[in-house]
Amino acid sequence: MSTQQMKGPVNAAMMAGMAALVIGGGLALVNLMSSGHAAFNTGSSGITWGLPVVGYVFFVLTSTGLTFVASLAMVFGIKEFYPIAKRCIWLALVTLVAGFTCLALELGHPFRMLWAIPTSFQYLSPLNWMGLFYAAYMVLLLLKFQKVNGGDWDSSGSRTLGIASFVSVVIAHGTLGGVFGAMAMRPMWYGPIIPLYFLLTAAVSGAAFAVLITYLTYGNESFMPAKVKNLMKGAMPKVFAAVLGIVILAVVSRTMIGLWSNADGLQVWDHVVASPWYWIELILMVAAFFMLLNGGSPFFPSIMVIISLFIGRYEFLISGQAVPLFKGTWVTGLIDYMPSVTEWMIVLLAVGIVLAGWAFGEKSLNLAAEPAEK
Amino acid sequence: MARWGMVIDLDKCTGCQACSTACQMENNRLPGENYQDVLYYTEGKQPTPVLKWFPRPCMHCEEPSCMHVCPTKATFKTEDGVVLIDWNKCIGCKYCMIACPYGVRFYTDEKPLVEPNIKDVYPGEGDLSWNPPYKGPQQDNAHGVGIQPHGVVSKCTFCYHKISKAPKGIADLSNDDAANREFVPACVRTCAPTARYFGDLDNPKSNVSRLISDKRGVRLLDHTGNKPQVYYLSGGAGPAVPSGRGGANKA
Amino acid sequence: MNILKNILEFKISRRRFLQASGTIGAAGAAGFGGSKLDGFTTLSKAHAAAESPSSGTVVTKSICAQCPARCGIDVYTTNGRVHAIYGNNDHPIANGKLCPKGHLGTYMLYDADRFKGPMKRTNPNKGRNEDPKFVPIPWDEAFKMVADRLNVLRDKGESHRFGLFFGRGWGASDVGVNIVPFGKLYGSPNAPIGHSSICSDGSVLAKQCTDGNASYSSYDYAHANCLFIFGANYLEAFRPYNNNMQQWGYMRGVKTPKTRIIAVDVHMNQMLSASDRAMIIKPGTDGALALAVAHVILTEGLWEKSFVGNFKDGMNHFKTGEKLEESSFNEKWVKGLIQWWNTELKDRTPKWAESVTTLPADLITTAAREFGSTRPAIALFERGAHTHSNGVLNGMAIHSLNALVGSLFAEGGLAYQMGPAYGQAPAKDDDFMDDYAKNGPHTKMPRIDLKGHEDGYLMAKNMIQEVGRNHLAGKPYKLDTALFYMTNPVFSTANAAKEWEEAVKSMFVIDTSPFPSEIAMMADLILPDNTYLERYQDAPTYPFQGFPLAQLRVPAVKPVYDTRTFADVLIQIGSRIKGPTGDYFKKLESAENIVRHLAKGFADNPGDNGVKDFDSWKAKGCWFKKPYHWRQVRGEFFEWDGNGWNKPMKPEEVKEKLLKTDSGKFEFVSSYMEHKKDWILKATGRSAEKYNMPHWEEPKYTGGGDLHFVTPKTAMHAEGRTANIPHAIALFQPAAGGNKQAVAEVHPSVASAKGFKNGDRIRIKSSVGEIIAIARVTELARPDTIVLPFEHGHWAWGRWAKGRGSHVDEILVQQSDRISGMQNFYTGKVTVERA
């Protein structure tokens, strides 16, 4: 595989990524330095976890999913996925960093976390286990990438790292789902299935990003190596469609039960389905599903699904907090929320990290490498 | 060791918010940072609308969901039953605010409710996020007492700086008890109709235990399982719904 | 959770010894002691570094200033900084408790916008958008400026053109021995002009006309079994608010039997919600309701026979619509009952009242029966009922209910207030009247507010609200100089923007407020007062429970800025007036000197709490002697003899001390009004037949709109001073969620008819102006009424007050009750539209 086969807009992505990094990061930092988190539109009587947390969830979800895709090859031995596995691992690392960046800029004391959690670990907190396993996952995946980058795909050490990464991210993302699923006082989020729901949507996101990044690397199918092309027209859309289909069912199921139930806290569903964004989310997913089944290029479906998932994560997070808890007349109706400029800049920063990170990897780390033919 | 709890008699409460302002000034809160809040609700239609209200302090739950989710154990429960926040360990993740069913927690770094921002009018010194000229002398970051530093969550402490000095073994803290008046939480001390009581829930002979028994005190949002240590009396005869679902009650 | 916790905690306790306590050092962990790594902590380590508030803390007794109630307070000062205010437990009004406003006093002391010293204006132009360009001047120069100006006026024989306007005056040291003699000795009928006509004079006159007492009432709530509350928000604003709430807790939570409460107001609020019977009435029609209640009491034989009297044959002859012979009834302590019945009351049925008030007739009947059959019962009212053109009539009708159920001066009823046993002032003002003061041209001049004048308000106590328009018109004349103490009529009077605000532009204005109020922005000279926590001041009680009570303000801190107590400032100015006037004030010396003299009176009359001199007064904060000296028991009056109400009173004594009317009885047909009959008939157009008895008169609504516009006070409204306190703003109007500004409560039918939603900006218009408000669409409001609390809408007053909310008095038409002079605040009618 030679680099001249990559006709995709890698350089453009690098430029865009750097620009997003500088603008997003610069503006966000300036605002945060001058007014602290008052630069956000979050509030104690409003939405507590706003767009930056949405960004965090979205990007680590993506990272999780990309590891799933890579694991199809590395853990489950499905050889068709090897051609894109290294790229997926690298992007998983990059999106993880992007997600953590969102979170770090959201916390009141991000550096304190580094000593306070280890020395005063609350065993009962789902957030801690999520953090612990994501940290472990990052280390393991980095080590795996190092191995793979050195050409070692299937020594026992490399295999173990691969499996360990997969297992740790499943637990990590499952507990991230648990962060929300354990909240008995918020029926919009409460439920033991939420961790599974998160894992499913992670898988869909991973598939979508894997497709997107492959097409962005090669430009279009005519420049793809045969194996990659076959994957993009064969196994990938099938896997993608399968998981997407389940996710669509999950979304519909949540919606129907949310609309049906009169339990306090679920009234926000009326508001959710009244919003055009919900329907955009649903229609994009359903259309993508059918496009994948029809066997066309999975490129556009991947974009549609990414947009849809971002809307979905935003909606999940924000509408879960939209019903005020014991605010009386101080908050009439549902809580209104519009992210501030600073919050959007943080997301822009994260996007910049992803674009620039991927572009860097693409240019310098030979992400198209795959194990030698046996 | 006492297990401090509060009883609020809704038959007597007039919704005046003196408890809220007493707390604001005793604990140097920001405007709108209502550690103690009086929440109003309107239902019905003219000419017979319904207006309801109740005072809402922190519930200092027996099973505080805020404590269970705090990654650094910054939120902790003392041996005398008070849920506090250690500002030295809080990382400002705000999970506790998500997890509290009663909306009693406040993050300090947000847009002010009332402009201009009082923090700009009285800027803080050192670690403290602001510094009002009428600041009280108490400051205890390890227990979330006083003016908070940047980037942390804060909430009602049951006026821990006062109650922690009360004589050991005392059954109730009340404004009527001249010798121990200075240990009474601000909201309880100032309540003009005497709608608030504070005492040891683990002492079955305390006034709070008696009130809960005489008037069938109830707790709010029992279905969440948090088990508040703040009981409400709604006066009058009649049945009341038990908080547990058969077999779940613990001594 | 339990199993989970047990498993995990087992691990924790195994690990406890591993956790080091000293590892948490990084982020400024001052005060961190011990290990808190397992969710529990030991108390002893817990407050290792917590500062002790009890060391170096001084508690000073003082009086809250946020309303007229005069609750005694304990002011906590540590290292010279005031940081907490709680109620004084030894004070009979406060009893250790406070209302929401009391605690905010620390804020006022340190208000970021306070004036820091005396200043004079250098920008000759006055207006809302004009910067006064104040420059600091020394106090002596300021005193000289004022005194010179006043002396010049006096020399020219124009001393009447000096006006001294005051609002919340407290007692002898600022008003009785100071302001009042100032006017008398200097020689101006306009010094002082009080604010009572924008306060609650309607009830004062209603009582004066019926039972001869020109005063608010004292109440014995603790023994009352039924309260019928008309337009007085007992749980939000009625004074003494703090004590009302204490009584509430007692009446509703402790007392047996539980006191029944019937409450009447124009929207659903805390008072009506907490009552047993809520009556949401059309504004201005409380009198009709009271008349119907009286009608039911009489027709159903519920009146208190021992006090009122009875038919000679013992049968009840009161039947709807039927006239009676006056001689058929033996009146005991009332006069004119049958005449009143014949002329007015016989047709005032609940059904009729329903057509006027919109309250259902059966509700009126039930309430009347409840009130009439429960003893003791009190009917109380205040501004909601009487700030209308028919206000005094409404008030008389309501107060008549007290006579009908015999609660006047009874246990569980209402009475009046005794004054404190003050000592002599340092000087007697009569001894210092020079010839000018006795005979100068001012003695023939009417007051600028036309109080007591045929062309103005003959029977009013004050008419402060019309000074603006009178000055502008030059009728009776124009003022030259005006001094303001504790009042801001440029903000708080009707049609303020076009009347008072305009008028002060052509006066030399001296303002004494510590805060940059609207009046201050129009002032030529600022002589800033100390706040209440920085001064000595006496304050005899506002009518409370009748027994004499006088409380004392003691400075908790030295003045934070270069400000001076108003009483001292006026003394300094007075000392510089030519002639014996100056000598009087030199003898007064200072506020502190005055209160020391007042305290001498306690030597012969030590208080129940042992207060007998200045030092003990300072230490306890109040002097009082229980009980109220008079009591009516089942139609007989008794005076306190030292042990009990044992000394029977003769009718002449009752007339002299209690029912101070011509007849010595409660008069349904008022002799007080009869003395002014010609003027009343001419001024009000009422009929000769009814004018001096409680009767129904349709109120003259002002403003020309289709919705009633009512602007009540909320619990957080400290006579306006909380407009610049962000904590008060954030809690201002809880029932409607007004936490950034007062919001307008509007019924959903109005919102949908005019096309706006909850939270929208709306324009409220009347014939004299328009304001923008935020709409709160709610069922609390009647469909025909908008309620927008009075507080915000300032264009000065400080950084939090300025530009916030809606100035309701800008759209209020200048109209006052012809008898009482009471400004008709709640009688406007407006239109509303989306802004």
Task: Give a verbal description of the structure.
The complex is a heterotrimer of chains A (374), B (251) and C (835). Chain A is mostly helical and 374 residues long. Chain A has 2 domains: 1-37; 46-325, Formate dehydrogenase/DMSO reductase fold (Up-down Bundle). Chain A has 13 helices and no strands. In chain A, helix 2 (51-74) runs parallel beside helix 13 (341-364) and helix 3 (82-104) crosses helix 5. Chain B is an alpha+beta fold and 251 residues long. In chain B, 16% of the residues lie in helices and 16% in strands. The longest helix of chain B has 9 residues, at 18-26. Chain C is built from 29 helices and 32 strands. The two termini of chain C are 54 Å apart. The chains are: A mainly alpha (374), B alpha+beta (251), C alpha/beta (835). The interface between B and C is large, with 82 and 92 residues.
Overview in brief:
The complex is a heterotrimer of chains A (374), B (251) and C (835). With 374 residues, chain A is mainly α.
Q: Can you count the beta strands of chain C?
A: 32
Q: Helical percent range of chain B?
A: 10-25%
Main sheet: strand order of chain B: 8-9-1-10
Terminus-to-terminus distance of chain C: 54 Å
- Outline the biggest β-sheet of chain C: 7 strands, mixed
What is the string of helix and strand elements of chain B?
EHEEHEEHEHEHEHEHE
- The outline of chain B comes out as globular
Task: Provide the helix percentage of chain C.
Answer: 25-40%
What structural keywords apply?
heterotrimer, A: 374 residues, mainly alpha, Formate dehydrogenase/DMSO reductase fold, 2 domains, 13 helices, 70% helix, globular, B: 251 residues, alpha+beta, four-stranded mixed β-sheet, two-stranded antiparallel sheet, 10 strands, 16% helix, 16% strand, disordered C terminus
